[in-house]
Design brief:
two-stranded antiparallel ribbon, about 65% helix, about 170 residues
Length: about 170
């Protein structure tokens, strides 16, 4: 019996889209300002989501190439999960956070620059913006990214090496 990797790829896509959509929702609707480390964790999603979509679409015709896309996407999600663990650990004080971490809202109008600078609130990477069920946003990112990475690895492992006759 051949197990297809497509359900795993689709599941990972749903996890990644839910995670990045939630992050953007908290930022745009909830008013949470992400720190620099939060923004860096999103880069894994920005790389993995298109790769997973490509792998999902090409799977029936080019399963070997789909395996590579899934594996590279999994690596991007492992990187994001690792950053999430590091970030959550810094928030809990298990280790120091990055010395240069502090973000703020972008200044969009230079005509009132001084007022914008005075009103800018810096966001520290070592303070959790909020917690849900005792886990910070960075911790939830580690969970979601880790789950997506596992699903993508399963998709890569279950994709047949090739369907072409030799």
């Amino acid at each position: 019996m051949i197990i297809s990797g497509r359900p795993f790829a689709l599941s990972s896509l749903l996890v990644m889209l839910a995670a990045i959509g939630t992050a953007w929702g908290f930022q745009l609707i909830g008013g949470y300002v992400p720190c620099a480390l939060c923004l860096e964790q999103r880069l894994g999603y920005y790389a993995a989501i298109p790769l997973a979509i490509i792998g999902f679409l090409i799977y029936p015709r080019m399963p070997a190439l789909a395996r590579i896309a899934f594996a590279v996407a999994a690596a991007a999600m492992v990187w994001s999960a690792g950053l999430g663990v590091y970030h959550a650990g810094a928030e809990w004080g298990f280790w120091p956070g990055p010395a240069d971490c502090g973000g703020g809202e972008q200044v969009r109008d230079a005509s009132n620059l001084l007022a914008a600078i005075e009103g800018t609130r810096l966001v520290s990477c070592t303070e959790a913006a909020g917690r849900f069920l005792g886990i910070s946003f960075a911790g939830w990112n580690a969970v979601a990214a880790g789950m997506a990475a596992l699903l993508l690895l399963r998709a890569a492992l279950f994709a047949p090496p090739s369907t072409r006759p030799r």
